[in-house]
Amino acid sequence: QMADPFLYNTGERSHYGCLGHEVQIEYLKAYVCRPSVSTDKAVIVVHDILGWRFPDIRYIVDLMAGHGYITICPDFFKGTKPWTTTDHWADFSDWMKNHDPMKVDREADVVLKYLKEQCGAKTIGILGFSWGGMAVHHLMLKNPQLTAGVSLYGRIIRDSEERYNLLNPTFFIFGEKDHTISLDQIFLLEDKLKQYCKVQYKIKVYPGQVHGFAELKPEDMRPDDKPYIEEARRDMIDWIKMFV
């Protein structure tokens, strides 16, 4: 029996009124928010297991748009049911077999094409949370069209040398108290990146933080965690601003 990886109570989140709108892109639905000024810079946000409709992820999309990026969160689950807080963790590995974060290349290409052709985007970055963090790590090894990536608490998987040869600058954010990712795994990632990575990268661990910490809306943050959550958000935005 796996413990709920979201130690924050996802059921008691405050209501969030979104600023963007939903679009259909080929076979994908997506949530898009545009900044108030015109720009040729865009960011793709990859949701976690709770899917593209989860309010916290839409809050992040709107936040990035507020920083001047055309921001989009596509449904990487392609209309299938996301994980819900009432599902049983015993079934999680079966669910993951049908929702593989390494199998997102086709969806990424569809969204990149849309951003370039329909939105006039010239530089495109990517952020991903948890499941999405794993997808970002994968895509930053595979897709040179992504100028920069931020992987937030994506489980570190498969220790093979191909996992470290990133194509463009990538920032890995972790919580110190994340029980899905050990500090040993993070140190190993750092060692391997030193060995194999030829582009800029950064790894940062935020004290006392659990899995899922960086997605919280301001009114859902605990006072002790707030400074670290805000710091992680600032760091994430600064990384994107530096390269995208």
Automatic annotation (TrEMBL):
Its gene?
A: Cmbl_0
SUPFAM superfamilies registered for this protein in UniProt: alpha/beta-Hydrolases (SSF53474)
Q: What is its main location?
A: cytoplasm
- GO CC annotations on file: cytosol
Origin species, per record, is Leptocoma aspasia
The protein's GO terms of the molecular function aspect are: hydrolase activity
Record localization? Cytoplasm, Cytosol
What does the similarity note say?
A: Belongs to the dienelactone hydrolase family.
Q: Where is the Dienelactone hydrolase domain?
A: 29-242
**Protein's name according to its UniProt entry:** Carboxymethylenebutenolidase homolog
Signal sequence region: none
Entry's Pfam families? DLH
